[in-house]
Amino acid sequence: MKAVVLVGGFGSRLRPLTIDVPKQMIPVVGVTMLERVLSHLKAHGVTEAVLALGYLPDVFQEAFPDGESMGVKLRYSVESEPLDTAGAVRLAVETAGIDSTFLVVNGDILSTFDFTSIVNFHKNKGGLATVALTPVDDPSRFGVVVSDEQGRVRSFVEKPPRETAPTSLINAGVYVFEPEGLDMAPLGEPTSMERLVFPELAKSDQLFSLEMPGYWIDAGTPASLLQVSLDILRGKVVGKDLSALQRAVTGRDLSQTETDCYVGEGCVLEDNVDVRNSVLESQVTVCAQATVRDSVILPGAVIGEGALIDSSIVGHQAFVPPGSIVVNGSVISRYAELMPGCQVVGERVPS
Q1: Where is the Nucleotidyl transferase domain positioned along the sequence (predicted)?
Q2: H or E element at residue 116
Q3: Residues 194 and 278 both lie in one domain
Q4: Is 229 part of a structural domain of the chain?
């Protein structure tokens, strides 16, 4: 089976981490976000994935020079201008010559959904498209999807007040399509899946939905990227088999000093550090007396002596000077160098 993975967005919600890298290429506990998506697709029979590229396409192509990742063959569909969701999928279908039922997934959605079950549901219903639904506590931040007892989609309600929302089920960013389900999307023209294709398919009773049980998260914000990383440590997210207690660290045994952490290859942790419930990607250095709690430290970053990192993300090769404090959901960009002894509280640097 084939899949289209939407990875063309600018990653604006994750700035400044995405200034020069697409969000799907940010590591999430040892492997990139994209590799986690591909691994899950592979587990459900997908053998070829078409990456719908837009922002910084060369980064993806250079990362996978053999045209393969996680056991999935890769094809590339590159937009010359932003085509919106349906336009990007239509171009990918034409580029790869997809001529049978296929999956579509947003590249920043991580889940434990049973893709096999929604494909089977789609084929049994005989429609042109099926959208996966997931429940949320507060639907007022999303568009909800109203369906009948047979699963036919009847309407879409954008950001309803929580107390009057007709349902708590939202579009989960996972779809099953027949190629002709995209015929209304002009090739090479910007077209919205949510505003054009889905409403038109619903009018003709060709759009179905299925509520999917399991873990789901939109990992496209700093808060959700941090959340999914910590959820992986807790075993809530499936994907590549990774030990949350990996000890590939230079210098010493960490078994008595770090709790519930992922410590990537080539990390250096000096004496008397306190690292708890955190992800240290490869080549990270945590200097003596430093504390890292409930945080993600991306590859090559250096946490200076006596610094405190709490509930925050430190970008690739950033330098947090001695005695500095980075807390309360702060995000430090790639290559950033902070002022010695600074305090960053709930901020993005640069803003």
Answers
A1: 2-233
A2: helix 115-125
A3: no
A4: no
Query: CB atoms < 10 A from the CB of 338, how many?
Result: 20
Instruction: List the one residue out of 82, 7, 79 whose CA is nearest residue 37.
Output: 7
Q: Residue type at 41?
A: L
Prediction pTM value: 0.90
Q: Which two tokens stand for residue 224?
A: 């959700």
Tokens describing residue 162:
């929580």
CA-to-CA distance for 257 and 34, rounded, in angstroms? 32
Distance separating alpha carbons of residues 137 and 140, to the nearest angstrom: 9
For 41-94, where are the E strands, in sequence order?
Answer: 48-53, 68-69, 72-78
Task: Say if 227 falls within a structural domain.
Answer: no
Contact 67, 48 (CB under 8 A): no
Taking the CB of residue 226, how many other CB atoms lie within 10 A of it? 21
Summarised one tens digit per residue, pLDDT across range 303-338 is: 999 999 999 999 999 999 999 999 999 999 999 989
Write out the H or E segment, with its range, that includes residue 109: strand 109-111
Q: Flag whether 104 is in a domain.
A: yes
Region 104-113: what's the mean pLDDT?
Answer: 95
Contact status, residue 297 vs residue 279, Cβ threshold 8 Å: yes
